[in-house]
From TrEMBL:
Protein name: ER membrane protein complex subunit 2
Compartments reported by the entry: Endoplasmic reticulum membrane
Record lineage: Eukaryota, Fungi, Fungi incertae sedis, Zoopagomycota, Zoopagomycotina
Function recorded in the entry: Part of the endoplasmic reticulum membrane protein complex (EMC) that enables the energy-independent insertion into endoplasmic reticulum membranes of newly synthesized membrane proteins.
Subunit structure comment from the entry: Component of the ER membrane protein complex (EMC).
Keywords linked to the UniProt accession: Endoplasmic reticulum, Membrane, Repeat, TPR repeat
Organism encoding this protein: Piptocephalis cylindrospora
Length: 282
């Protein structure tokens, strides 16, 4: 959505479109949504008015406009006093203000009533990360993926958290789940290969790098990773763990050389090119 569109279009249409697409344009939402609320233009909108209150609330948090956020929250609390959704907004408000104990208490109360509440679980994980309790965040995220096994973002986050704690076998399991859920995404293959490389599983890493290159030809991370695997396994001429190692090594050299030629012409960066060429030929 362009700025021109947001200026010339009907404000309600703009807000509706932003809700539909999930696009984060907090400045736009505060400008046009705030005006609608300030001048009482939402009174005739029925239930849509409450969606706008929530939308402006989220935008206000993004912009650290605590007064506007609190005003929207109070209106929503008055209208929906027992709503879990509104209570979750209250938790987000306190979390954004840095009042983490109150936010955590709100999330815990929601989870006590509904242990599978998606947004409360996600907010609890984010809050634990903010507090530096990575093991606690991992525990909550494990609970979450046990209930919602198809959530790609959750598996990616759990993999990253495991890697941050050097729990590479657990991270590898997460990547395997991601590959099953999204087999044509090359980055899942690359991350899995990097974890296998860290675990000294060079043959598995090399195969995963090759799979990544099938999905995304000439991806630099996959090319460098495959080259490192071949070197670790004894070099192209003595490598026994990877089929067609010599051909793969030549392909890696060719693709990386082309990439450097494109990014660094021969008239520039000669010393860098010498270093790269020496390493590639090793």
């Amino acid at each position: 959505m362009s700025l021109t569109t947001t200026v010339t279009s009907d404000p309600l249409e703009v807000l509706s479109e932003l809700r539909r697409t999930g696009e984060r344009r907090s400045d736009v939402v505060m400008r046009i949504g705030g005006d609608l609320l300030l001048y009482g233009k939402t009174r005739s909108l029925g239930d849509e008015a409450w969606l706008i209150y929530e939308q402006v609330f989220d935008a206000a948090l993004d912009l650290a406009d605590w007064e506007a956020a609190q005003a929207c929250l109070e209106m929503l609390q008055e209208k929906f006093p027992v709503s879990k959704r509104v209570r979750l907004l209250d938790g987000k408000y306190h979390e954004a203000r840095g009042i983490l104990d109150v936010a955590e208490q709100i999330y815990d109360e929601i989870l006590a009533e509904d242990e599978t509440h998606v947004m409360a679980l996600k907010r609890k994980v984010a809050l634990l990360k903010t507090k530096g309790d990575i093991k606690g965040a991992i525990g909550k995220l494990v609970e979450y993926v046990d209930c919602y096994t198809n959530d790609l973002e959750a598996w990616m986050e759990l993999s990253a958290l495991y890697q941050s704690q050097c729990m590479y076998k657990q991270a590898a399991y997460c990547q395997e789940e991601l590959i099953l859920l999204q087999p044509i995404h090359h980055l899942h293959q690359i991350t899995y290969a990097e974890i296998m490389y860290t675990l000294n599983q060079m043959e598995v890493a090399a195969k995963s790098y090759c799979r990544a290159l099938e999905l995304s030809t000439a991806h630099p991370r996959a090319l460098y990773g495959l080259k490192q695997c071949i070197l670790k396994l004894g070099g192209a001429s003595r490598c026994k763990g990877v089929n067609h190692a010599k051909e793969l090594d030549l392909m890696v050299i060719d693709q990386l050389t082309k990439a450097y030629e494109k990014a660094c012409p021969r008239s520039q960066g000669q010393e860098l090119r010498k270093v790269v060429d020496t390493w590639l030929e090793s």
